[in-house]
Amino acid sequence: MDSEMSMTSQAAHGHHEGHEEISWIRKYVFSTDHKMIGYQYMVTSLFVALFAFFLMVLMRWQLSFPGKPIPIFGPILEKLLGSSMAPGGVMTPQLYNSFGAMHGTMMIFMALVPALFAGFGNFVVPLQIGAPDMAFPRLNMASFWLFFVGVLIMMVSFFVPGGAAKSGWTSYTPLADFADMGPGFHPIFNGQTLWLIGMAFNITGSLLGSVNIITTIIQLRTKGLSWMRLPVFVWSELVTAFLLLLAFPPLESAAIMQLMDRLFGTSFFSPEGLIINGKHADISGGGSSILWQHLFWFLGHPEVYVQILPTMGIVGEIFANNTRKPLWSYKVFVYSLLAIGFLSMIVWAHHMYMTGMGQAVTSFFQIFTTIISIPSVLLGTVLLLSLWGASIRFNVPMLFALAWLPMFGIGGLTGLPLGWTASDVVLHDTYYVIGHFHYMMAPASLLALFAGIYYWFPKATGRYMNEFLGKIHFWPTFIFFNGIFFPMLVQGFAGVHRRWYDGGAGWQMAQNVLWLNQVMSFSAWALAIAQIPFIINFFWSLFAGKKVTDDNPWQATTLEWATPTPPGHGNFLHPVAVYRDPYEYSVPGYKQDYLPQWESDERLNKEGKLSQVSF
Amino acid sequence: MEIPYTVTARPDTGLYNAKVGIWLFLASEVMLFGGLFSAYIFLRLGATHWPHHILNVPMGLFNTMVLISSSITMVMAWSSLKMRQFSNYRKWLGITLFCGVLFLSVKSVEYKDKFHHYGIILNSGQEITGHLAMTEEEAIHSDVLKIKPDPENAGDFLFQLKSIFSKPEGEEKVLEIPKKEIRWWSNFVPKYNTYLATYFTMTGIHALHILGGLLVLGYFWGPGAALYRTNPEHLANRVEVAGLFWHFVDLVWIFLFPTLYLF
């Protein structure tokens, strides 16, 4: 391994003159290379995803068998977090709330967005546009480390007195203004305050990252790569970066205001006459909790698209590659992305129909929520029609990408009733909502995440992931995702509330659908087991996977496949130029069924060959 | 490996990388302050009572002048660099730095004034503002608050101007108010009311931006200026980018001043 590593590093240096030897710590830890930063983002966020999933695995026990001690992990929890949190291995309501809040926060802000936007964004975008690195490499490193500190703060918050934040991933006020305060809590080192500080780090990191991605795409596109020749993944990253850039700062100001409320006793989000624990709160009042909701959802809604847009890009890439034909309509795809990006900024208050905002405001948000479904459907249609008449290669990336489509469909269509006040009032805060948004955020986002990992793994490491283990990973993952989330839609229609600590056991009307709790819990546990083949595959393939014999193993057309395998510092051996559209597959009149963007017409029909083997 | 367009502009966009980056960053800053301003509007629209004349307008006006001047000197510093007049660059950037420090000094005097200014809300809902006629320590332990109320004309520009240079004369009569008649009293810190909460939060974040700007400009005045010898155009670009940030921070103040001091 060591000798192989040094070979890579020598090889990586070999093709660019005048490079001093980089120390280990600058190469793997404080790296400014976009690819290494991409790996760092990806590995960190996969760990966070596993951790946050584990929180939910434990919560599912409480939902199915309320009040019973958690087997195996119960005693560990009691030992780690104290008997006030898990007496005798039973999950207390506080622990349940804190696990729920942290599951949401970590999954969204510290697992999925960093993996999909920053992980793939950092690794793939500069390669796909033919750039030597990101526009601001040191800023890039700073973004990662800000994010990493944010993750650490969130992790540490589990062990402060009173435990991690308990006010939901939305941190609604005035609850969050006063949660984790008073006797037994440290004024700063308490769950909710650490949540805010951790989020501030995370937001700052995302902002710098999105500045970097946008600048890179605008400035560092190689010769010939005009806007309408950009791969769809680059487009999706561009739109996502703009959403993060513009939607995140209001949440940062909201987090600052909530910190002011908590640390300096202001009343930004606390109304007059607030009673806490039977006592009149000693505050000036005059604030508004609706204000928090507005500022939160102004980010919170675009955030959903921040997750789903890069997955659309990934799926688009893999579809084109494995259907061996151009996307059904590249232009519709791109304009839909842009339309979704724009509209997603003006639909946020559809999360707030229950606050009584008034008819005019709700009408506005209903209209735009309905309108945003149009580009979403167009986009799904482009992908669906791309399959029509194709001779599809069913490799593992394609399986995951194909499975994305129905998951995205269910997630999107179940959202429509929530976009209209009349039906939302009934379904609000039930498991139906949980089921709906998880279809987007869990099956759709994660399946595309896996698809992307299987797809770009050969470029990143020089080895394929194992096909058989990949299929063993795929089928149970796909099935059990639905086993978890489809019953939620059913329970939601029966009126089961999303925040019940006992899974509905205490409510007469829920008795008919209680058995579904166990279906969901066993699916969740089976889903956890189904990830084992992936973890084995990931590490095994890193060192012993089948070696890639061609720089372009999938016979793809986009620029990332023009680099050596794995790409060294500076990425390309020769300056690259772009001669054609991104997905010229099966063009009649050529010997091969794919025309890479970087090949001019004269140079086509040559055999692909491996310019460098390493790793 | 060299990243293209760090110094020269990309032909089709006409911009070098850092300029694209700073404009994007400023867009996000607009949204950050946009969030705060929206919060201000939202809270003020819903407020039953909004205090006036708490801040010293002449001081704020002076600070506005200081920042506007610093924007001008910032441009002079950059154009000196473009004309390769290094000593002029040092001079103009030095004045810019001085203006920034002056702004923060005046701001901290204003903050200090607020911490010594008190407000009392009686059980009847009536509000009395003024300065304590006892030490803070005594006020906390005593059953009676002794306070010199602000005079009627406390909001007048001339009165405020005079009060900067001489002790506030106020009405000499001292009110003695038993604490059991008081619902809420405190000095003018953020928690006193929503107005002061927004005032301190917004100006505080703005001051942090000024401080950040000063650090960056200070670096380019001092050690960062060494780049002039090897690549003056690169230094000019960096100063331009830092200057764009500086103008933005000034612009935010142009909005903050009327919002918080005048309306």
From TrEMBL, chain B:
The chain crosses the membrane at residues 20-43, 55-77, 89-106, 196-221, 241-262. It is found in: Cell membrane; Membrane. It comes from the Bacteria. SUPFAM superfamilies: Cytochrome c oxidase subunit III-like. Residues 1-263 form the Heme-copper oxidase subunit III family profile domain. GO terms for cellular component: plasma membrane. One of its GO terms (molecular function) is cytochrome-c oxidase activity. GO terms for biological process: aerobic electron transport chain. Keywords: Membrane, Transmembrane, Transmembrane helix. CDD domains: Heme_Cu_Oxidase_III_like. It is a multi-pass membrane protein. PANTHER family: CYTOCHROME C OXIDASE SUBUNIT III, NITRIC OXIDE REDUCTASE SUBUNIT E. Belongs to the cytochrome c oxidase subunit 3 family. This is Heme/copper-type cytochrome oxidase, subunit 3. It comes from Methylacidiphilum fumariolicum (strain SolV).
